[in-house]
Amino acid sequence: EADIYQTPRYLVIGTGKKITLECSQTMGHDKMYWYQQDPGMELHLIHYSYGVNSTEKGDLSSESTVSRIRTEHFPLTLESARPSHTSQYLCASSVGNEQFFGPGTRLTVL
Amino acid sequence: GESVGLHLPTLSVQEGDNSIINCAYSNSASDYFIWYKQESGKGPQFIIDIRSNMDKRQGQRVTVLLNKTVKHLSLQIAATQPGDSAVYFCAERGGFKTIFGAGTRLFVKA
User: How does DSSP classify residue A83?
Assistant: First the structure.
């Protein structure tokens, strides 16, 4: 059982709001990731981190930022949410080839 | 560009039968190929991986086959059970990044 948590699980907000999606893991993994996924579709990498104080942008430009101040915590912030940000956001950490995913945050921007 | 994709969006099998889920990839430089299972409302879960210098790898009730000549990957599930109903993603890993393909939804008929 993977110990990776995401909050909130569901979020409905208005356009222009600033939001932070939380992700925490208790496995001590250095590598962490954020993905965006529409239902049944492939995962698109938004950001990743090699470890504390290391963050990189992924392939999908989502106008979001991340921080990695502690190994276990990797929050994702949208400065100004838009309807195009409506999607599911998945956080993961990894060891070797295996990525451990959280349950996801389903975001709806009205 | 790089892409990992699946031939069929849905697959329906009878309980107890074997399932075969297919995937095509385009990046010959990938080091590993990986299968994930995603159940409704959950994040993807690692099933099995195969190194690029192997042709076949077996796990518990699952077998992954890699054909580098035609850039084809498949996941075979033996004696498919209702709990196998999910979306299955293939992914390829080269260096730090893992690229996911679009999923195949597996329906298991009782």
Answer: G
What residues of chain B, 57 to 76, have a C-beta less than 8 Å from chain A? none
d(CA B28, CA B17): 32
Q: B52 φ, ψ to 5°?
A: -65, -15
- B102 closest CB neighbour out of A42, A45, A101: A42
**Cis preceding linkage at B44, omega within 30:** no
Instruction: Note the pLDDT of residue A61.
Output: 66
With a cut of 60, say whether residue B2 has pLDDT above it: no
Q: What is the DSSP letter of A85?
A: G
pLDDT (tens digit, 9 = 90+) per residue, A48-78? 999 999 999 998 866 899 999 999 999 999 9
pLDDT for position B29: 87
